[in-house]
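Data card: per-record layout.
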Amino acid sequence: MNRSVAVQLLLIIAILTGGYFASQAMLTLRTSPEKQLVPKVPPAVKTEIARQQTLTLHIHSQGTLKPRHQITLLSEVNGKVLSVSPEFLDGNIVPPEKNLLTINPIDYEVNLANAKAALLSAQLDFEDKNARYQPDSLAVKQSAETLQAARKKLDQSQHDLNNTRISTGFTALISKKQVDAGQFITRGSPIANLINTAIGEIHLPVRAEELLLISEKPFTSSPGNRVTLSLQLGSDIINREAQITRIEANIDEKTRTYTAVASLLDPYALNNSSALPMAFGSFVSATIESRPLENLFVIPSTALQIDGSVFIVDSENKLRKRPVSVLQKTDSDIIINKGINVGERVVTTPLAEMFNGLEVRIVEPSP
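The structure for this 367-residue chain is written out next.
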């Protein structure tokens, strides 16, 4: 290799080596750019301000309409049944004065005539004795007692004769007819099973937690809560107003429920042309109004967590978990009586993750 070529190679190597070290120096001396921190945005939530209210809640139940009073009508005299009314049939409703049947009155008419004659004789005897003897004499006293007995005998004879014509004494539904024309009956014989149509009752099961919503003293007073009864009749619904008149002081051993008794006046609407009848035996739905309940909070149901708690937002915009007592749930709301305070901001937005101390951002706050 000649000298000139060697010199050229050495120059090339020197240039490359110098370039390498120069580039490394530049990389070392270059200032790294500062990292830009992206601020974390708290999750957005909606809230509702807790406000106390006085409310009347609705308790739902159901039951069968039954008569309050039903009796077995008995004969008070002996005799043959001469005739019966065409209306004396099972299932008919008859007015109180309607004569259902007539028992042969002949013997009782004779007894009444004899009693009248005996009374007249006793009256004459008393007047005679009273005129001839002192008022405190034995003869006058005995005559007075005879007169008194004659009067009672007349009353009894008239009563027996009246009882040969049998009526109910109240507007009655005949549930079972037990005698007919031509039959001989005796005193105490059953004539018919009757149902008084004046008042019907529905025994409504209620849970223990619903009991005090109806009355603070359920077993010692007549609550008087209004009840709306509903009966599905074909494609129509009949609604009638009733009232809670008592709560039975025992618990059903199978269902562990109490029984609120609703009374319905004139269930057959015999005296109310604007109402529709509800027959005994009807299965009805009932909506019971609670007593007025104070210091309640109505919150959207989206606020309720699966464990029965809610979250509030504190003054530092952080979540705080609160266990609450829920009196009632509706499709859109929950009604709370314990666990939150007036003016607190209750979170109504469900988040994927919620825990104590989580910072949040309130949007569209309630005024």
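Known properties of this structure: The two ends are 97 Å apart (CA to CA). The mean pLDDT is 91.

See the next section for split statistics.
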